[in-house]
Amino acid sequence: MSDQRAAFVLERVSTGVTGLDTVLGGGLPTRRTCLIAGAPGSGKTTLGNQMAFAHADSGGRVIVATLLAESHDVLLGNLRGFRFFDQRLLGDRLQYLNVLTTLIDQGLDATIDVISQEVRQFNASLVIIDGTAVIGDLAASPFDLRHFIQRLEAQFSLLGCTTVLLTSAIDQDLQLLSGQVNGSIVLRNELVGSRHVRSLEVTKMRGVRHAGGRHDFAILDDGVAVFPRLESIVGTQRPPDRITHGLGTGVAILDTMLSGGIKPLSSTLVIGTPGAGKTILGLSFLTEGARRGERGLMVGFHETSDDLAMTAAGVGLNLGEHIDSGRVRVLWHPPLELSADAWAWEVLDAVDTLRPARVFLDAITDVERTMTAHERISMFIPALINELRVRGATLMVSAEIESFSSDVLTVPVPAASATMDNGILLRHVEINGQLRRLVSVLKVRQASSDPAIREMEITDQGIVISRPFTVSSGLLTGRATPEPAAGPDEA
Question: Regarding the domain delimited by 2-228, which CATH topology (the fold level of the hierarchy) does it fall under?
Answer without folding.
Answer: Rossmann fold (3.40.50)
